Amino acid sequence: MNREASYSALFNFLKINVVGIVTWTRFLKHWNDVPIDEMPYLCLAQGKQVPNSAKGRPTSWMFHGTLHLYVWTDASPSDPSMILPATIMNDILDNIEEVLTPDNVMQSITLGTAFISHIKFEGDIETDDGWLGQKAIALVPFAMNVAP
Asked: CB 3.0 to 4.6 Å from 111: which of 9, 41, 84, 90, for a disulfide?
């Protein structure tokens, strides 16, 4: 089992299939430290790694992580014709969901690997609720099941 291969496979899959991202990274920055010309910014951050073992079977792992999405627009409350940051964020979130959802409920997204059995969204997507003005952020928790 290769942890790095698992996270890299997910990162590269998203990078190829999700549109609209300017900066792709696995180096997490605070949203105030990302220049506006580098947004939309998406970072894949690793989280906890939980073993799943049963007697007589090799250990599989549930790898958790968070996608950090930051967007910016020059929208102004005084100009209702401008595109809101939440609109850009929602379009990208829909795209992420689309590429990580199998066409058939009986299938799994394996990223073309022999070791990832499925990827799922896990937990609530946290957003800034509009408090950041021209910026919007979303934290998207995920889990992927990795077999040896």
From this structure: 9
Name every residue whose Cβ is closer than 8 Å to that of residue 5 and which is 6 or more positions away in sequence: 113, 115
CATH fold label, 3-146? Alpha-Beta Plaits (3.30.70)
What pLDDT, on the 0 to 100 scale, is given for residue 136?
95
Written as one string, the DSSP assignment of 61-101 is EEEEEEEEEEEE---BTTBTTSPPHHHHHHHHHHHHHHHTS
> For the segment 19-69, what is each residue's pLDDT rounded down to a tens digit?
999 999 999 999 999 999 999 999 999 999 999 988 888 888 999 999 999
For residue 140, the cross-strand partners are 67
Cα(116)–Cα(1) distance, rounded to whole angstroms? 10
